[in-house]
Structure formats: C-alpha cells, structure tokens
Amino acid sequence: MRFSAHWKLVLLTIGRAFLSTGKTVQGELKDRTVTPTGQQDSDPTRAFLLSFGYPVVEEDVARKVRAAQISSIARLTPFTVLANLINAIVIVPVFLGILPNVVVFGWLAAVVGLLTLTTSKWISASRSPIESASRRALDKAVSHATIFSALWAVVPIAAFSSGDANAIWIASCVTTGMICGGGFALATVPQAAIRWVAIIFIASVLSLSIDPSASTWPLLFLLSSYAVVIVCSVASAGWLFASHFLAEAELEHRGELIALLLNEFEEKASDWIWEADSQGTLRNISERFVHASGRTQDELETLRMVDLAYSLDESEARDVVGDLEEALELQKTFRDRVIGVDVKGDERWWSLSARPVYDDHGSFAGYRGVASDITETRRANALVSHLAEHDSLTGIGNRSWFLKQAEQLLEEQSKTGRTTLTLFLIDLDNFKVVNDTSGHPAGDELLRQVASRFSSISEGRTVLARFGGDEFAALGQFVSDQAASAFAEEMVNVTRKPFRIGRRDFAIGATVGFTRLRDDADTVDDLMRKADIALYKAKESGRGRALAFEADMEREVRERREMEADLREAFEYGKLATEFQPIVDARTGKVVSSEVLVRWFHPTRGEIGPDTFIPIAEHAGLILPLGNWVLKRACAAAAQCPELNSIAVNLSPVQFMDPNLVEQVTAVLAETGFPPERLVLEITESVFLKDFGTASTKLAKLRELGIHIALDDFGTGYSSLSYLRQYKFDKIKIDKSFVDEIGERSDGLAIISAVIALAHNLGLEVTAEGVERKFQVDALRTLGCDTMQGYYFGKPNANPMKITDVVNEDWDQPVSEENSPVAGLLKPAS
Known about the structure:
The chain is an alpha/beta fold. The protein contains 31 helices and 21 strands. The radius of gyration is 54 Å and the shape is elongated.
C-alpha cells in the first residue's frame, strides 16, 4: 500500500490505535473503507485496517486473522518472559538503593504476577492451537500490552526523579530495549505494539523533562526518531501479515468456487470431463460420460475415444476422425475437435478439448479434457444456414444463395470454355390483384404453389430461387437457344393453369426474360442485367410471354435511360414548357376553354412528344411532381385569363392512383386562387383498369369541389360504355382517330353521331379532338358536337391570352343538312 495515496487513512488509524480497539468504523475512517462506486476499497487498504482490528471483511476471515495475530505473539512468549525477567533482575538492585523497598518489591511483584499469568495462558494455548479468535480476545491482548507497558513506563520516571546517574543509565538502556523489543514482538498486533511504544515513549519524554539540560534535546530527538521508525515498521509489518492471510482466504475461496463449478459442470446435461491413459483407453469415467455415450461404464473402460468416433457410419464423421487420431498420436493439446458418435442409433456430435498429462518422471500418462454434446447447436446452425440461403415462404433458394450458385457455375464455365449457362428471370402477372382482393395469406399460398410448379419442371435442370415479392429466377445449362427458349415457355405455360386457393381459382400467368452466356468476359451481374432487360421488353410487349435477350434491346434501354436522365435534368432546371390549345364552342366559334399541353424541346433530339416522355416520367418516378407542376402552371396562367370559361389538364393513371391526389389538387387551387368550377381534369379509361374501389370515391370528391371530369380518348378502349354507367363524368372527348375518318368512312361518322346522341341523353358535354379541316368542323356542328379542338383553330401557344381570338368566316351561318358534308352519309342504305 502506498503511503502517499492513503496517508490520511494511515495517520488516522495509527492515531486511533492508542484510543480504541477498532470495534467500529466511524466518521472519516468509515468513508474510507468504501469507494465512490459503493464497492469495498482496495485489498491493501482492507488489509491495513484489518490488522488494526477493523471489521472490513467477513467475520470468519477476521476471526482467522485475529487468531493468527495472537498466535504469532504467543510463539514469542517464552522469549518475552525471559527478557522481562532479565530486565527486572537488573533493575531491582539498582532501585533498592534509591527507592523505598516497598515500592520496588511491589513493582516487582506486579511484573512477576503479570509474567506468571502470561506464561500460564501460553501453556494452556500451546495444548490446543488457536484457529479462531474473537474481537474480545484481541482486546485482551491489547489490554495486556497496555498494562505491561505502563509497568515499564515507571522505570525511566523513577530513575530520572532520583537523579542517580547509574540508575538513569541503566533505566535508559532498559527503556530503549523495551521500546524496540516490545514493538517488534507485538508487531503482528499493531494496536498493541503502538500502545506499548507510545506509553513507554511518553514516560521517557516526561522523564527527560524532569531535569532538562543541554543534552536532553539530542536524547529527545533520538528517542522520537526511534519511536517513529518502530511505529512505521509495526504498521507495515501488521499490514503485510494481514495481507498474507487475506491472500490465503482469497485462494481458499477461489478453490471452493472452482470445486463448486467443477461439480456443477459435471452435473450439466451437455458437458463432462474425460480422461484417457497413455494407450488412449478411457478411465475415471463419470456418470455424465456414461449417460452421454449410451454405453455402460464397463464398455467405456475398454474403448478409446477414437473407437467412439468410428461408431458413427457417416461420411462427415469419418472425415474428422483422422484429425483426432493425429492429435492423439502427436501427444499435443487440442481444442474443439468435433466427432460423430452413434448413441443407441441416434446421431450425436461431440466437441472435444484436451491436454496431455505427464507423471512425476515427465513421462506421457494420457489425456485429460472436456467433452460437450453440440448436436443441438449443430442442428440449430444448420437451420440458420438453411434459412440464410433459402426463402422462408417457399423453401426454395433466395437471392443471396442464387448469386453464389451463379458465381460457381460461371467459374466452371470459364474453366471448361463452354457457353451453355442460361439465366431466367420470371415475374408473375396480376399477382398484386390476388394480394389486394384476397389478402396476403392468399398471396403467400399462391407463391408457394407457383414455387412448387417451378420446382417440378426445374428439378435436375436448373437451380431455382425467389428474389422477393413475385420475382423468381432460374439458372441452368442448355445446349442451344431452342432448348433455353423451350424451358422458358414451360415456365410461362405452367402458370397459366388456374391456382386453387381455398374455394377460389386464380389465373395469373408469368413473363420471362432470359439470356444465354455469349461472352466469356460476362459476369453474373452482366447476365442479370441482360435478363432483366429481356424481361422488361417482354412486359412492355404484352406480358404472358418469354423473350430472349438481344443486343438491340440493350441499346434501346440505354437510350431510354439517357432520355430518363435528360428528362430529370429538364424538369429540375425548368427546361419543360406548357402550351395552351384552344377549345371552341361549336355553336358560336368562341374559345371557351383550353387544354394544357406539356412540351419538351430536347437540345439534340428536338421536340419530344408527351406520348414518348410521359411513360418515361412514370417509370422514373417523376410523374407526380411533374403533374403537380403542370397543374399549378395551368391554374396560375388561366387565373389571369378570365375569357376562358375553363382549363383542361390531363391526369396520367399514375397520378390518378396517388392516394393524395384530392389533397394536392385542393392545395394547388388554394395557392393559385383558381376557381375549382373552371378546372377540368381529363382521365383515360386505363385509369379504371387498375381501379380497386378507389376511383369512384376520388371522382366523387373532386366533383364535390366543383371540378369537372372529362373522359379522354373515348371509344378507343374496351369498355368505355360501361364506364359511363359506373362513374360520373361531366364530358367526354371523342378521340382524333374517329374525327380523321369524317369524309372517308361512313361507319366512323355513324359512331360519332351515336356517341354524341348517347352523351347528350346522359347529360354530358361532347368535345371532338384533332379537328384540322373545314369539312370536319361543318360535320361536327351538324351532328351537334358541343366543343371542338385541333389545329384548325390555331396551334397551341404558351400564352393563354393569345388563343382566345379565332377568326372563322360565316361561322354564324348554320350548316344545313342538305349542304353539310354529312348529307347522304347518315342516310340509310336503300
């Protein structure tokens, strides 16, 4: 213990040694025995306090330390008694001449009586060694030393009081010897030793003060230095003595703990200790070993560990036996060597660790080690590995496992120089419909059935995996393009048969894109990219088919991605523009509305039409911010042009499916101050192909705001008439393809006439698109079309103020049926 680190504690303890016996720890001393963290102070501090009798350890340890302290003093009892007798014999004759005989013999009687008591206690204690001592016993030892020191403190005082030089000389020698001898004899009990030294030292100081002279101060200095050195030595000796016993107690505690752990270790269900002799034969077999091996103790005593390792007839188990044999033959330490053991027909796996044991002559005597049953751990690890490499829903491989397999197969192909490897990517068609209409449990069951069908046709031909969602992949070796194409068609055909889930049948289908290894430099990523391009093209061309990758596809995709990047840049940097196309009233020729068109003038490609870049915007995720920007521009511009009764803005299917559509439209109207009654939103019937019950709700909310809804491109879809019954519209727009047929085909004109009549009967307004010639205008006016738009009325303009004036000769003159271009076309055939 460093004095500099604990000097206050040392001084306080030594100071209190003269006053108390360390029964309690109070005040600053108590605070010092506990660290700020609430734990006991360091062992050096505890040992120091323990030597002074403070209760800083468990009582049983403290009793052993006290017993050792007292026993150490007791061992020196014969020598201390003899020394005291010799000193008394020397002192008594000297004092008889200067003190009354009664005083001298009284003092001698007290000394002899105390020595007699000490000797008797020593004799009784020597018969039965002291193994435990209480605080009271330690207090008695301290009190004994205090009384003895008080008797010897009389000697210097009496000698200096008499003034006899011979008595002073004899007393000084005896006192000095008693201070040193008593201090070191009592050193194992620092409190007793310090009291002894302190009492005699104080008596000596008092003696020197009786007759002070010039020589007194050097004597006083020497006496003080002796006392300090002895006190420090006593404190250090007491600390070392207590530290030794604390260390022994700690070792004993650790030994008990180790024994307890070993006993507990032996009782555990999966671990046991094993031993073998120099021949490898098992010995000292525990009950745990017997239970784990499934054999009797007699059987085990005739076997080697290697024999147990050979009991399991399994390839992996046989492979690891050689490592165990080698380690045993080399007589070296080994750890975690796994062996397989047949335990009553059950496959078990043990992990062995052991070290060689040598006898007293240094000869190899065998092995001692630990065995653990790790069967369940291996099974758990195998399950974890399986889950890490397989799809938890379908049981087939997952993406990570598939890519590893692809790397291995590609490496084999590169070594052999073959190019038969083919990668297939499969997407299920209409899977989302099943999930959305029947719930995820039905979707999960569908995926399991799809995986089962794919597995049945892939077995022995390809490795199969599910990438996630409704995406699957297969990889195999096919000798020709025709063979690969035939397998891809099988993947498509196998999904066309309905899937039975619960009481319902679901028809979905699949789209496949695949690529064969053409270039030796191709990586797995290259194959994945090419197959993905083929899959994209297959989806684009109608789904439900298989398509092989071709070089031209990559060029198209690259161009599309370049255009996508250019479109993103054009949108971010404001390079897109809006133009307004006039919509005129068929009766008056006045511009009453305008359709907003988005224009993109590419720096190298020129003008790119909306039919080209809008699908790109949808695919790139730009359509929502782009649509919101167009709507905001249109409303802001139209708000400055009160001549227009309304403004028409197209919504893409992706925009319409946005759940926040109504809120966004409302926010734009509020921001621009544009009246909702003047806004017309145009949608196509493709919106309803993806409707799962939300379209009618959105349309109703928009119309509640006062917004008008127009069905665009009417007549070009599959079931426009049914949509007119299901949903509420304000107007329909006849597609340009029908207007182009005016004057060329009578059936086209008949369709226009029927549409106009139907719309008017339903209370809907009709707008004809793509009007470019005068006779088309006359025909549409004759048929009763409400409004028209097209290049005949002027080209779109960026400023809506400049489209409001349209000059048409004789517009106010009604078109008669006789002079109309439709005359004769609508007459029934005779």
